[in-house]
Specification:
FAD/NAD(P)-binding domain; five-stranded parallel beta sheet; six-stranded mixed beta sheet; 2 domains; globular; alpha/beta; binds flavin-adenine dinucleotide
């Protein structure tokens, strides 16, 4: 009898955690598992703002997938998925290869939501992947060297769109590194301006008032110009148009929201902002051998509330998804997914952070430490104490 084929699409938070759980659950020879991802490395999406600002070594953010999985149990394929054919149970790849599945997990992560604002697609920089984040850093550094030639002040104005979780984290990293870049390129730091533009009346919408006040004050101390209640109307190569005028800048970093993956819509399925509705077992209704988690999934915790697109959600869904794929195969009972919110902490550089854990607002250096603990816990889940140790020592297995 042919072995069942399990195919996992995407090796981000959700995909890699599911794969590792499948490694543990499946008996030898029970199924063929294939993991497909665009790149040969897994990147730590929650730290891409550091790559964008140049505050993290590449080898701390991008980890070779081959070193994270058991290559004897998992067949890893570096490829880009181009379409999904649910009728014939096939995944089509950009290299024209077709991969057949019996059980499929779609965990391809987010795409950037531009809300159709003119110029954002073409001119704003997006923290989308490790590569796009490296491109942001190269652009930023380039502005400093070009400033030496043309002394255009727009080159030294760095705007971040959105003061939600990611936007605030991005601003914190810019504060941490632009001083170093100014020094490296012999540019007076007083000429550098960091602007954070937010449509809501406050930064960190949805956070506790205490956290909002703390971050607003911290931004003031750091010299960040915070423009709240300000809508972005257009972005060009040379300026950003907002409702109160124009900001001359060659750098707008867009962190105003995400949506699911276009592959579902292209396959003719109905989505909610690109996300697939999933049932309590993480399956796509009417496609019951197809699972979907993380930023691709629209999971309702009650009649009114859907889970947000966070790594915390993807990481909790992964193991349940693996258990349910195996249970479906074996014809045993499925497990309902229950989300357990452990809190959220936004870093503002390596030295400060703000957030809520349980009922407590945490801020400052203690919160920054908590954030680092959360990051270390993820490394532990990925590769045990060995990986935490390796990453802490800063070894460079990819050789970037
Ligand atoms: P991802 O982790 O994005 O993984 C998707 C994978 O699919 C990627 O490896 C990608 O390369 C691959 N892929 C995409 N398209 C294709 C294709 N066509 N073919 C093949 N492979 C493909 N969440 C938190 O909980 N806490 C935080 O502090 C936090 N901070 C964040 C900071 C930043 C800067 C960003 C951008 C996000 C942050 N998030 C945070 C959100 C979190 O990173 C996401 O919710 C999480 O990564 C979702 O996991 P996922 O598995 O769904 O997708």
């Amino acid at each position: 009898m042919n072995k069942p084929k399990i195919v996992v699409l995407g090796s981000g938070y959700g995909g890699i955690i599911t794969t590792k759980k499948l490694e543990k659950l499946l008996k030898s020879g029970e199924a063929d598992v294939t993991l497909i991802n665009k790149h040969s490395y897994h990147y730590i999406t929650t730290q891409l703002h550091k790559t964008s600002a140049g505050t993290a070594q590449d080898n701390k953010i991008a980890l070779p997938i081959a070193e994270l999985i058991n290559n004897e149990k998992i067949n890893f394929k570096k490829a880009t998925v181009s379409s999904l054919n649910f009728d014939d149970k096939q995944v089509l790849l950009e290299n024209d290869e077709t991969v057949e599945y019996d059980y499929l997990l779609v965990a391809l992560g987010f795409q950037v939501e531009t809300f159709g604002i003119p110029g954002i697609e073409d001119h704003a920089f997006k923290i989308r992947s490790f590569r796009s984040s490296k491109a942001i850093y190269h652009h930023i550094e380039n502005q400093f060297s070009k400033y030496q030639e043309d002394h255009d002040p727009a080159r030294l104005t760095f705007a971040v769109a959105g003061a939600g979780f990611t936007g605030v984290e991005m601003v914190g990293e810019l504060v941490e590194n632009l001083k170093n870049l100014a020094e490296k390129h012999d540019v007076p730091y007083e000429k550098v301006q960091i602007i954070n533009i937010e449509a809501s009346p406050n930064l960190l919408p949805g956070f506790a008032l205490d956290a909002v006040k703390y971050t607003t004050e911290l931004f003031k101390t750091m010299g960040v110009k915070l423009m709240t209640s300000t809508k972005i109307l257009e972005c060009t190569e040379n300026y950003v148009k907002v409702d109160s005028g124009e900001i001359a800048t060659k750098t707008l970093i867009w962190s105003c929201g995400v949506r699911g993956h276009q592959l579902f819509e292209e396959a003719g399925l109905e989505t909610i902002r690109g996300k697939m509705k999933v049932d309590k077992f993480l399956r796509i209704p009417n496609l019951e051998d197809v699972y979907c988690i993380g930023d691709n999934a629209h999971f309702m915790v009650d009649e009114k509330t859907a889970l947000p697109p966070t790594a915390q959600v993807a990481m909790q869904q992964g193991p349940v998804c693996a258990e349910n794929i195996v249970a479906t195969m074996r014809g045993t009972e499925l497990k309902e997914f229950e989300y357990n919110h452990k809190g959220s902490v936004a870093s503002i550089s390596d030295y400060y952070a703000v957030g809520k854990v349980g009922n407590f607002v945490i801020k400052g250096k203690f919160a920054a430490l908590m954030k680092q603990v959360v990051e270390a816990k993820y490394l532990f889940a990925l590769g045990g104490p060995g990986l935490v140790f390796k990453q802490t020592l800063g070894l460079n297995p990819l050789g970037f």
